[in-house]
Design a protein that fits this description.
18 helices, elongated, single chain, about 70% helix, mainly alpha
């Protein structure tokens, strides 16, 4: 592929998808913080009647006309959601579900009627699923792509997506603090006299504009993936709002470019002669990124949380073994008792003992070292102090506190002063066993 071919056939649709995805990601971050991601879904479905009406009236797909039609329909749908919510005394989710389902069904009926009755360039697949292949950057004859004339010949879809992206970034930057307060506490924002309704309406209009500018790229259905997935993915990694907006835009650009390249060149790299749908691949990449964030984000990911739990569980098992060996030396436990580690099987206990040997807490013969004995005394002291507390302060029976104390004993550095500030430190537990002294 030559440079001229790439600029003509691939660069414009790729940049259009990137701008559309970035604007959707930035605006989707605000919807996510406001817990209104379903509103983005509602708008993406509700703009369809407005798009069809605008096309029928103008007989063209000019971005200005499509924007006015789609934005009008989107704002009308948002207002209708509020009307249904108040008149029907129902929740916002139910109202949104009713409005966007009816609006989308009406739009599909209108679209099919237009297809049958006129010979216009508006088909259902293009509007619903997008068609990036139709976006071509063809400069005037005798001019290069990067000449002034060539730049002015950029596709209208790219200009529309770029303008909406610029407006979205400018809006977020100009009203950052107000939007942040409105997103987290709209009641407090109203008490400060902030124009909550006006800013919410402006955000809704921008979401509608982003959806309209994206329908050439990914259609009015798949755009919901660009509104939700990048913002939700970044939310798993950061709690800072500014970082959330910047990274969401970056992820939106990344999934758009990556999805486009995978759709066009992925099958060829595998030896196939066909290409995949760019819009479908962009949505798929967005979903994969979100799945990766859910699984592997350091703080909230399923895998890191599971690993942290396993580390805590392994440490608890090792401490249970040390405490049991200390009780054996003390003569207060049975040699064959396995109740000290009820949640671990023989293999897990074997691994735990190996780990204790490498830490120097056990001797090669499996006995407690001096360090291990001190650690065991600390754990047993914690256990028996908790038993004393549960009996003396919580009023439980002495024969009902062992299992609870087995769980609480792993809390470190407990003493009688922390459990009961004015109580003297007990010397024996409710079972008349000696409480090891504090180290």
């Amino acid at each position: 592929m030559t440079t001229a071919t790439f600029l003509t056939l691939d660069l414009a649709p790729m940049l259009t998808a990137a701008c559309a995805s970035a604007s959707c990601a930035v605006l989707g971050s605000w919807l996510l913080l406001r817990r209104e991601t379903l509103l983005g879904d509602a708008i993406s479905h509700s703009v369809l009647p407005g798009l069809v009406v605008a096309f029928v009236l103008t007989q063209s797909r000019e971005p200005a006309a499509m924007f006015v039609g789609g934005a009008t329909a989107g704002i009308a749908a948002a207002l209708l959601v509020e009307l249904v919510r108040r008149a029907g005394r129902t929740d916002s989710g139910t109202a949104m579900g009713v409005v966007f389902s009816v609006s989308f069904a009406l739009g599909v009926l209108m679209l099919k009627q237009v297809e049958r009755s006129t010979a216009v360039d508006l088909d259902a697949d293009c509007v619903l699923y997008g068609d990036l292949s139709r976006i071509i950057w063809q400069p005037p004859a005798g001019h290069s792509h990067l000449s002034p004339e060539g730049l002015l010949a950029m596709p209208r879809e790219l200009w529309a997506a770029a303008i909406v992206l610029a407006c979205s970034v400018a809006f977020s930057a100009a009203f950052f603090r107000k939007l942040a307060l409105i997103s987290f506490d709209p009641g407090l924002a109203r008490s400060f006299g902030m124009p909550v309704a006006a800013l919410s309406l402006a955000l809704t209009a921008l979401v509608a504009a982003a959806v309209v500018s994206s329908f050439d790229a990914v259609g009015s259905i798949i755009v919901i993936a660009m509104l939700v997935a990048p913002a939700a993915s970044v939310r798993m990694f950061t709690d800072r709002l500014g970082t959330q907006l910047v990274l969401s835009g970056a992820v939106g650009i990344g999934v758009a470019i990556g999805g486009y390249l995978l759709a066009g060149f992925g099958p060829r790299a595998l030896g196939a002669s066909f290409a995949l749908s760019p819009s479908g691949m962009i949505a798929s990449v967005s979903g994969v990124v979100l799945l990766g964030a859910i699984l592997f984000s350091p703080r909230h990911g399923i895998v890191p949380r599971r690993l942290r739990w396993l580390r805590v569980a392994a440490e608890a098992i090792r401490e249970d073994i040390i405490a049991h060996l200390y009780r054996l030396e003390e003569g207060t436990a049975s040699q064959r008792s396995e109740r000290f580690v009820p949640h671990a099987g023989p293999f897990v206990r074997w691994i735990a003992r190996r780990r204790l040997r490498t830490q120097g807490l056990l001797t090669p013969e499996g006995r407690l070292s001096e360090i291990g004995r001190a650690r065991g005394a600390e754990i047993v002291r914690s256990h028996r102090l908790w038993e004393s507390y549960l009996v003396q302060q919580a009023g439980l029976r002495a024969d009902h506190v062992h299992d609870t104390a087995m769980k609480l004993e792993h809390l470190r550095a407990l003493d009688a002063a922390r459990l009961v500030p004015d109580a003297p430190a007990p010397e024996r537990d409710p079972h008349d066993k000696p409480i090891p002294p504090a180290p």
